[in-house]
Every structure is written in C-alpha cells, then in structure tokens.
Amino acid sequence: MSNYFNGKGTHMNKEYAQIFSNVLDEKQIKINEPMSRHTTFGIGGPADCFLVPKTAEELCVVSKLAHRNHIPVFILGGGANLLVRDKGIRGVVIFTGRLHKIEQSGNLLKVSSGVSTAQAAQAAYERGLSGMEFASGIPGTIGGAAYMNAGAYGGEMSKIIVSATTCDARGDLITYDSRDIGYSYRHSLFMENGEAIVDITLSLKPGNKKDIRALMDDLNHRRRTKQPLEKRSAGSTFKRPSGHFVGQMIEELGLKGYAVGDAQVSEKHAGFLINNGHASCEDMLHLIHDVQQKVKENYGVDLHTEVQIVGEE
C-alpha cells in the first residue's frame, strides 16, 4: 500500500488523524483505509485519512478543520460512480454515508446525503409519493445521485430536486435552489465547487402505492435482466454521446468479453465495464482506453467517462 504524502508517509497520516480526534472518535477515523472497500468497482488504493462523520454538524467541523490545515479533501458518497487509482487518495476522504435522516412535509421529502438512492425511493413509496421510481435501482447514495444528476428510464434527479444544502470548505451551510445548481446531463455545480452535499429536498407527487410499487418492480426487473448486477461495476462507464448508443457500438465491435487482466467488458451489457475479480485501476484504465480508441477509429465518436476517476497517478 502507498503510505506517501509529500514524502512524510504514515507519520503525516497520523497527524491528520490527531487534527480530527477532538471532533470524531477513534472509530470514525481510519488511517491508510483501502478505497477498494468503499467503491462498487472494488478498486482503489488507500486514503491517507478516512473520516466518517455521523451528523451534518460533524461534517461541517471536519470540513473547516481540513481547510484551516490546508489538507486536500475528497467527499465520498456510496462510491458507485467512482474509479480510484491504485496509489489511493492523498489528504482526507470524508465519507457522508452515515447521514441518514428522511423528513416529509406534504409532497416534499428532505433526504440526508448518506441515504441510499434505493432507500430514498422506498421511503417515497411508503409515503405514497411518486417520482422516485426511476431511481429505485440506482446504486450509491442520494447525495451522489444529486452530485452527478443521475438518471435512468427517462427520469433524472434534476427533475425532482427543488433545493440542496451543502457544507463549504469554511464549514458554512449553503442552500441552493434547483435553478442555481446548474444541472445538465450528468453534471452539476457541485462537481466544480467542491462543496459537500448535506441533504436534498425532493418535490414528488401523491400517487397510488400499488402503481408506484408496480413501476419500481418493473424497472428493477429490467435492470436485473439487462445489466450485470451480479458483478462489481460502476454502472454505465461512458456518457451517452448524441445520436449513438454506447453499448450498441461496443457490441458491434465484438468487444463483449474483451478483458485487460480482470477488467472486462460485460458480456451481458457492453456499456458496463466490470471487475471480474481482482482488477487494478491500471487494468480498468487500460480497458477504458482500448474501448475509447476502437470506438473512435470505427465510428468517429469520442466516448467520455461517466465514471469519476480520482487519486494519485
């Protein structure tokens, strides 16, 4: 494992831990934590210091402490759209997955960023609220889904989010109206400003619970039959280029099953790249490059990754 940070290694990582020890207990602070444990790909080297705040207040305080001490910060949700390089992440990783509140006010559902997307959809169903059905099978957290404007089956987070509260580097809470979030295809303001999403408010509609459940079950059945859910992946690896279907192009090139080490193009759905066992990030990046190159050569189309690639080269 890599223990390096500016040549100071584990000693520096312990100094990080000491900085946050007045806010978090020892179970909430981990040194040299393998990121492979926290991504759906199951890939990634160690984070120098891995922090697990349990409340929005703790999240804000550790963000402020990191900023004051000039420590690089990476905000982690469910790790479902993430590829971490083999040398890991320098500085601190702040994991938001312990922020778990769900509150209802009429047709509005306020959801903490650490709630899984599936749990949020289930909560909406239990309250007879429609609009989250499309997201019931999207992996990861609602914060991550809001961060990247996740979507499926014609639905998109930007269509149901009315506001989002974040914590900035100074530890201040900021609330954004949906119009200020700058949503576009798989993109939001949060990808640029580095703020940690604390919670989001969804505007849903009253619906018949049987109808909501039936639609959720139908969409999840489609996922199970068409997507390699039994394998470790980060969902669709590439963004959809205008006028083309990624999986179709890759399949037409005969790349289903093509592998670099344990990184492989799924034989079930060519738009998914999977970890078939012990793939390294280097394997996966090599595979991504090969697919991009072959699609460019044959179709003249540039494929861009939907998956966020982070960490030390």
Walk me through this protein's architecture.
Residues 1-8 have low confidence and may be disordered. The protein has helices spanning 9-20, 56-68, 117-126, 142-148, 190-193, 209-226, 246-252, 281-299, and strands spanning 29-34, 46-51, 73-76, 82-84, 89-95, 102-105, 108-112, 129-130, 151-152, 155-156, 161-167, 173-177, 196-203, 205-206, 232-236, 259-260, 263-265, 272-275, 308-310. The chain has 313 residues and is an alpha+beta fold. It is globular, with a radius of gyration of 20 Å.
Summary tags:
single chain; alpha+beta; 5-stranded antiparallel beta sheet; disordered N terminus
Please describe the biggest sheet, giving its number of strands, its sense, and whether it closes into a barrel. 5 strands, antiparallel
Helix segment tally: 8
Strands of the largest sheet, in order across it?
A: 6-7-13-11-12
Which oligomeric state applies?
Answer: single chain
Low-confidence stretches: 1-8
The helix fraction, in percent, is 25-40%
The radius of gyration is 20 Å
Question: What is the average of the pLDDT values?
Answer: 94
Order of helices and strands: HEEHEEEEEHEHEEEEHEEHEHEEEHE
What is the strand content?
25-35%
Give the beta-strand count.
19
3D shape: globular
Helix-strand category: alpha+beta
- Please give the alpha-carbon distance between the first and last residues: 14 Å
